[in-house]
Amino acid sequence: MSQIDPLNRPVPSQDEDGPPDNTLNQVAELEGTHIIEVSADTNGRAAVNTPISLAGNSATPISGTGTPVTTMIAGRLSGFWQAATRNRKVAFGLSVIAFFMLVAIFGPMFVHTDPNAFSQDLLSPPSASHWLGTTQTGQDVFAQVIYGARTSIFWGFLTGILVTIISIVIGLCAGYFGGIIDDILSLFINVFLVLPALPLAIVLAAYFPFKGPLTVAIVITMTSWAYGSRVLRAQTMSMRRRDFVDAARASGERTLRIIFFEILPNEISVVAAGFVGTVLYVIIFEASLEFIGLGSPTVVSWGSMFYWAQNNDALLLGAWWWFVPPGLCIAVLGAALAFINFGIDEMANPRLRTERRPKVKAPSTRKALTTKEAVA
Amino acid sequence: MRHLLRRIGFYLVAVWASITLNFLIPRLAPGNPAEALIARFQGRIRPEALHSLEIEFGITNQNLWVQYVQYLNNLAHGNLGLSITYFPTPVTTVILQDIPWTLALIGLATIISFVLGTLLGIFLAWRRGTTLDSAIPPILTFLSAIPYFWLALISLYVLAYTLNLFPLNGGYDISVTPGLNINFIISAVQHGLLPALTIVVSSIAGWLLGMRNTMITTLSEDYVLMAEAKGLAERRVMFNYAARNAILPNITGFAINLGFVVGGSLLVEIVFSYPGVGFALLQAVQNSDYALMQGLFLFIALAVLAANFLADIVNAALDPRIRQERG
After folding, report:
1. Do the Cβ atoms of A356 and B18 come within 8 Å?
2. A293: nearest Cα among A309, A279, A280
3. How far is C-alpha A354 from the geometric centre of its chain's CA atoms?
4. What pTM was computed for the model?
5. Lowest mean pLDDT among A88-97, A357-366, B173-182, B260-269
């Protein structure tokens, strides 16, 4: 293959088993492979501390036979964790999320104001008695933000888990079985991938017999699983012909066991990375649906705060303290999650890391390198 | 050619799926829009009206298949039912009124954001490691995590409410008459500028970061090194060698991101009370106007599918491997 030809596009070749429908596959595979590289890299280093010896070789996936699956996953995750905390972006993101988690869990214990209670101070700006001011009915915005954190974060993560589970089941089945099952599931995945999620979710939520965070969670799950499935399907396809899967099959293990106890643990890093992106997406999605008024108006959450602020013309009344704090919370939490994803990308694909170069003009450094390498 | 046919086949299935979902969702849900309407107008509609309302909504106790055929027949004749919000205007009329606004706003904003983001991504990747490159991605990461509608609220508050630089809401000034006259066009542009800016700012991060990352990967390919070693002009290496290849995954990413961008943009319309599809969607939700809601979903889904199909064609035109199905 001549590398000089500029038409020789450097996109990785598709899996032979995959239907060559679209380059989406390639993107998904790209991501998949990179993340697997991390886990391998991580395992190499983690092997020192973890009880199971993970030879540190990306080509040898761990076989579940004889090894307790939980320990294996724990080992993978702890390695992942170590590499994660070493990356500055990931460490930053994780600490911000830890902070929000603490606020969500313990915050309401310290805030004794009922977030729904009306008071005499209508629409007052931030002051000593109301740190973030009050709403048009005199509700304390600070209390609402703290209680809202609990709802939004809890349901955000729960929905993220639901979405991830569905995408695992569909993605792994499509990737493992291949053939007609894969054709049907892939079609299903691709259709849901191109259908716009928000309008579909709105229609679904509007027809739901009851309103509330659960409805929002179900609707988001139904509309948002496809992307993860696509990535995991590609990953599974590259894994189903590996020796350890053949070995498991030969030893007579049941198919479902092979899929979820042999293959899945080897993809846990892809799942974990996908989960981070999913939670970010879900939290924004959730707030959007609640903003339109599809949540429960009585449950305090960041999204419902927007709904009430918008419906009471907070903007035209100049009550910025009503809608700025919940949005800022979502933005900071979201940025933390995005940073984690960004950091994972960097760990997975070393080319994306920004090294500080010595103070020479960037292009000339590259030129110098080029000539040296060209000579070599 | 075979590739194109396959893609057309796929999109036909996707269109069928969205039409069928639109048919099934109301029929699988407990209760029906007619009952909801009566519950909504407590006492103001006599219960005897239920039957006629049900007929109006196309709810019959007939076999699901018969209903499906009727539904498809109605659809083929452009009959999506009557809107409750704008009773008794047909849904199709309402949607047709909103389309130009949304198409102009979201369409233009998305194209601007995609082109600008891709170009900036190319430049950032080319200058990677510089202060600019290390400063912009974190800022954009932060921007991309902000919900669209919140950014819209903030920009509306700061730029329109406090600084009075832009009009507060609507698509044009009430004093001008819509039509092809200069006053109307100026007013429409003034009103569209801030929403468009919001959409561009919120969505640019995705295109930019995606392009930067694939571009960086491409830059380390041997043929780029070779092109540089040959002493080709910097611009030529950057665009004709590296960017040309790196843009393919970004166009593919267009498909995945478009639904998300359109969803976010609809919310921006809501914040700005912009007379487009998004605002109509809000009206539909608030008034339990199921016919309008479904009509809007169908329209948005078809529009997104059409845009994806275009992206597919562009991708096939740019990438010979896709055309020849070598995969």
Report:
1. no
2. A309
3. 23
4. 0.78
5. A357-366
How far, in Å, CA of B174 to CA of B203, rounded? 30
- Provide the 3-class DSSP secondary structure of residue B97: helix
Instruction: Enter the tokens of residue A360.
Output: 């020479």
Nearest CB neighbour to A374, from listed B229, B248, B263: B229
What amino acid occupies position B95?
Answer: I
DSSP string, A214-265: HHHHHHHHHHH-HHHHHHHHHHHHHHTTSHHHHHHHHTT--HHHIIIIIIHH
CB contact under 8 A, B141 and A339: yes
Neighbours of B129 (CB within 10 A): 15
For chain A, say whether B133 makes contact (Cβ under 8 Å): yes
With CA atoms as reference, report the closest residue to B278 among B154, B152, B98.
B98
CA of B261 vs chain A CAs: smallest distance (Å): 9
ipTM: 0.85
Q: Is the bond into A358 cis (omega within 30 degrees of 0)? A: no
Is there a contact between B301 and A196 if contact means CB atoms under 8 Å apart?
yes
Class of the B103-276 domain? mainly alpha
Amino acid present at A247: A
| Residue from A224, A292, A311, A329 whose CB has the most chain B CBs within 10 Å, to mutate | A292
Q: Does A116 touch chain B (CB under 8 A)?
A: no
Looking at residue A50, its amino acid is T
Measured between alpha carbons, how far is residue B300 from residues A225, A358, B254, B260 in Å?
Answer: 20, 51, 16, 12
Q: Which residues of A touch B229 (CB under 8 A)?
A: 370-371, 374
Residue with more model confidence, A292 or B170: A292
Give residue-wise pLDDT tens across range A46-82. 333 333 333 334 444 444 444 566 776 777 677 767 7
Residues of A in contact with B296 (CB under 8 A): 199
Domain extents for chain B? 103-276
Residue in this structure with the two tokens 């200069």, named with its chain if needed: B182
Tokens at residue A108, please? 């309401």
CA A335 to centroid of chain Cα atoms: 12
Amino acid at B208: L
Distance CA B323, CA B1 (A): 7
Read off the DSSP letter of residue A131.
T
Which of the two residues, B85 and A301, has the higher pLDDT score? A301
